[in-house]
Fold each of these.
Amino acid sequence: MPRLSIITPVFDPVPDHLVACLASVDQQTSGDWEHVVVDDASTDPQIVGVLDSWPPDPRRTVHRRADNGGIVAASNDAVERATGEFVVMLDHDDVLAPEAVQRLVEAVVSTPQADVLYSDHDLLRSDDRAVSPVYKPDFSPERLLNHNYITHLVAIRRDLVVRLGAFRAGFDGAQDHDLLLRATEVARTVQHLPEVLLHWRQSPASVAADIANKPDALDAGRRAVADALRRRGIEGTVDETELAGVYRIRREVLGAPTVSVVIPTRGSRGRVWGCERIFVHHAVASLLADRSSRCRLEFVVVADQPLDGVVERGLRMLAGERLVLVPFDQPFNFPAKVDAGARAATGDYLLILNDDTELIEPASIDEMVGIAQEPDVGLVGAKLLYGDGTLQHGGHVYNHTIDHALRGWDGAHPGPQHLLAIARECAGVTAAAALVRRDVYDEVGGMDPSLPVNYNDVDLSLRVRRSGRRIVWTPHACWYHFESRSAPHPIEPWEVEQLLERWPDALGGDPYYNPNLAPGRTDWLERPGRSGAPPFVLLADGSKVWG
Amino acid sequence: MDPLTDDGRVPRSELDRLRALLGPSERSYETLRADVDKAETLARDAQHELGRQRGEMAELRVQLARARQDQDTFQRRREMSAGAYLVDLAREGWIEVLRPRAGRVARAVGLRRPG
């Protein structure tokens, strides 16, 4: 059985909080642990008293630093003294769930190649009630770059921590984010345990309460992410955002690639914001109006025949020599139209785009290409808004249903856990606006015409993921999608059956959702009783007080 | 009071404005274009305001669902005996952990159709 070294740097916490922290280690249901406590020269005599008077346990060692060296120095002292197979980070005021060690050990035994493990966590309120559980996705590297969604509880193989030089000086406050970024780059497997194994203390000045309390930590986090980009050979910039702890990464587009914008169309007209428009004209014109792109655009318009002369003339006027018009004279079949466009396209990237769209965010294509340049990324999706500004597409969720994440929320909302404000991995993305590298599209066999109307993008997404590649959704590429709010294409039972026959396991285990969230929903609603809402307290007189 | 046209149906100033908009000159077209753009912007802003309300409702619906299901769960647990509580936990474990695994195994060996 692997032994875990729980490391706790201590510096002047509230004494009761330290007591709760130490007690939570003692109360573990599994004994395969050692607890390395490093007192970083606490000045509060009560803290010294707590550490001195705590009942001795051969598994716990307390070391005192002569001088206060800060969180990085104290943590590194603890790592040096650790002897277990894994190092588990526990802050001096946080509380482990009783089964935390047991669960981690079980996970290591069942997944021996796991080098980094992390669990869900919740927040510990000032009245010691655990609230606001954070149910995380399985390992999501893009999300980890954009913000430290992992935070607690983390276990990393000790020899890996040592090999990486442990916590780095100069990253105080974001030292854990920095270590996670470095460790996950070389880890064989990063394992997520979908269970709350740590209660993160929410004291008024803590990062748990508000990371903006520690501005130096935000800058350290930004530098940690910038360093991660450098290590990975990604050219780009990192900036802080108005959401504390969330970083905006802008990748450089390498060279001047050609992006073939494949737009299947019937040349339809419709009324948007009170005005009549030919959809495909606006889709093309809005992209041409964006002068910020480094990419060369080629417009491959796959048009039903006969095409209205006004539509065709307008397209030629707008796109000129960049227009490749592909006639399509078969019954409606979205994948077949996209495939016909892909065959005629000459670009390094294909942007599959519905004609009833209009670009909102400048440089959206560069954002998507920047991400798709990474070899292990297969498909990049965009944020799509309805005409009223509400969210249509925030990535797919396959959680015993297939739908868009948080559909109908305010398009400007950052979403639960900031997930609408950050680029992150998704189970799939809609083909209404999706960018794919040409070689990936060809390798996975393009889109499947046997699903002519619905789920062809789900099938494409699943094939891309089966090829071992990631699918990334980014909010920094954004279009209007003037699709009807009600389902424009009713889903037929045979379509569901066909998808399930092909992908029997795909729809119940979305790695970027969480089993603690309610099945059949895509809005991050927890299962009953798991929202962290404190249950009522029953008083002696029978009355209830809600927590 | 704005004077009316000879037929008395619209104010003369409005007729003059419309004539200016529909006139053949480039300036008339630009004025008309600006008018349409302004109307479109106003319509979009109005729809976005509606969208903000809709978005807030969508978020509130999630919070309401959360509150209702938590209330129901805590109420049921409050009324349960210790035995019934254990049975409930076991049922939950079956639904969440064992049944999906059993389903996957059944599908893998062909005992059950997908779905």
Note: The two ends of chain A are 40 Å apart (CA to CA).
Amino acid sequence: MSESAIRSKIEELVDDATTKECLLRLIDLEQVTSASAAYSVEYKKILQESLDAADAGGDTQ
Amino acid sequence: MRIEKIQVRNYRQYADFELDLVGDGSQALLIVGHMGAGKTNLLNAINWCLYGRELFDSDTLRSDPFVNKGASARVGPHGTTKVSVELRIRLDTEQDVRLVRERSFKVDPQNGAVPTSKSALVVQIHELDGDWTTLDESTASDWVERFLPERIRPYYLLNLERMQQFIHDTESNRVRQAILAIAQIDVLATVRKRLDAVRRDLYSTSSGATDAQVDGLAREVGEVQRSLDSVDEQIESRQKATEDLAAEVARADAELEANREAREVQAELKARREKLAIAREAYAAANSQLREAVALSAAFVLGIQALRTTTTLIEREKDAHRYPAPIDADYLRQLLLASDPTCICGTSLTVGSRERSAVEMMLPENIGLAGVGEFLMRHESGTAVGFDRASTLSSRTASVRNQLMKLDEEIAALEEAERIQEAKLEALGGVNVEVALKKSQRDKAQNALVESEKAVVGLRKDRERLSQQLEKAERLYKLALRKDQSRQKSAALLEFTERCQEAADLVYEQLLADARDRVSRALSSSFMKMMVWKSQTFAGATVDPEYRVAVKDVSQWESTGSLSGGENVCLAIAFGQALGEVSSFDIPPLIFDSPLVNLDATARVSVARTIAENLGSRQLVLLMKPGEFDDEVVAALGSALPGLRTVDLRYDEVAQAARVEEADYV
């Protein structure tokens, strides 16, 4: 298994593109920073950005 | 990833030590060293360099100083010295990385070497342009966390004893944690956990609405959420405490077990010594008997020789018809004294006659012959007895000699057994006299563990109740929120967060199931390859859905508790290697400390072969004692790993430093 196994599994199992994209961004966040105290702010930011992008593109579920 | 070189200065057995682990590109290295040469401390040095602590730092039996004794002696009292360990690593991307950890010490005459600085790690990366980039201290730790995180350390710096405890520990779900860590699925677990916290936070931070109902519900959700968070924190803290206590109990159990074993060894040693003393006494007694018997036998032999000489003389006299004496000497004497001496044959023996002169001449010879004859008659039976006794003594001497030879062999065997027992006792660290104290500490920790586990159960119940309460409050809040146009955006974010969390859950469960399956298959394959002598008994091994390691005999699954010591060792090694199958990291080297020490000759060969054959492209470093392997083991390793290199690790007591020499065991 390699680091990309998580990504492949997300690609394979998650149908919704917005959710998929958001999860991949969150995984990136966890892999570049260890146990950040400000994770809540970062998470909300990523979630909101993903949602906004989906709204703008009209591809939400 | 390969560890290419290690340099150790002023650390434990190592004064100024450098070991090239790959030589001319070999994948595997066998380091051979006697007890105390520094094998385990080489692992400690690697662990200290990477993580700032020793692999066995919790082991209270260790008492040797951290700073090399020779280094302390060289700088003298109040002098300062620096301990350093450097690792040169080559990543799979062919990039070179240098890690150096240092710490300064001052020699205190009373307390030995005391640290004067914190240990500091420097990581340097060799860039493509040829320059070395030095990372600052926090980034250096991040580098280690990214490429060789401490949580995967137990699966590449393999210590069999701990690995065995690990796979037998069915309570704390460590096998599951190991798979999560090595496959890096724990990253997804963290995402799930944080999404959950964000979701709760979104509920609790949505207050301030104009709608009183929404406000009230938001407050309720927030309060329940805070209670839940507090319970979560308590559970986490309790769980950590429980794990620490469980580890303490396990450590105490291991120490007590080692101590019990040491006592048994000591008792056996005492019994053998008593037997040896008895054998030595018997030897001394038999030796003294032998000496007496030899002396007596010699006396008899001399006596018999004298009698034989005399007998020969008599025989000669008989042949000359001079024995026995023809006429009784007393009769002749009386005849010569008589007034009218006439022989019975009628011859007159008057004074001056020729016949008388002849009788007078014959008389002394006659008297002498009669004396000898009497003597011989008297001693004839004694001679026979003497012969018998000499013969008996001779066979007795031979028997005592045999007895002495047997005693000699017995004493040699007992002395050898004594040496083995003494070595065993030394290896076990001797007998600890503070057993009662350790037992009491262990029982105390066990009681605390039970209490802690009870507390966790209680807290979990609280958590479940609060979760249900929260779920209800959240449901009501969501309903109310939907009605509030101004909260539409928050509601959308909340719903999206929940969707992400559900997706993360799905991926997490699936990844974990896949990883378990792969580890299970690799474990079974390796285990069966190793168990050549039980191929008719075992059908496989598995990590079951409850994350317990189990073996299957021909009819049913069994727990690992029923395995023998050697079978357990094989299972632990197979599990250690199987974890490598799901590693999501730059594949670390496999470093085994004394992997074959508890196995018999057949198992050693099959385990060595399996380790080598399952290695793939991974680097292998084996640290073994000289008696741990034989030619067949080396041949098994060498056939799968043609470039196998071997070195001897020796500790020079005069220089107080370990050194390494190329060796040729292949």
Note: Helices of chain A lie at 4-13, 17-32, 39-57.
